[in-house]
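EI: anyone free to look at a 95-residue chain?
SC: sure, send it
EI:
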Amino acid sequence: MQRRKDLWGEDADVWKPERWLSRRPGWEYLPFNGGPRICIGQQFALTEAGYVTVRLLQKFDQIDGSAISKQVRHGLTLTTCPADGVNVRLHEAAH
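SC: here you go
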């Protein structure tokens, strides 16, 4: 859906953040859907993701991404993710 040329134009596969400026928030990210059939777990999933992110930032004081290659490949399905994963080293913060 996010790369349909009939909806987004011939450059649908190109990263262009400005194409989202005129869109109504809430309907562009389809994994949660919207309207009467919106995912009932959306707020829980977003809250949980935010909580996990904050806890990671509290536990580690350095993130070393030197193992990440310069060429990023994408795994494109309903959502997008790095095709090769994200390999980082975390340095535990001193308490």
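EI: Strands lie at 60-64, 74-76, 80-82, 89-92.
SC: 👍
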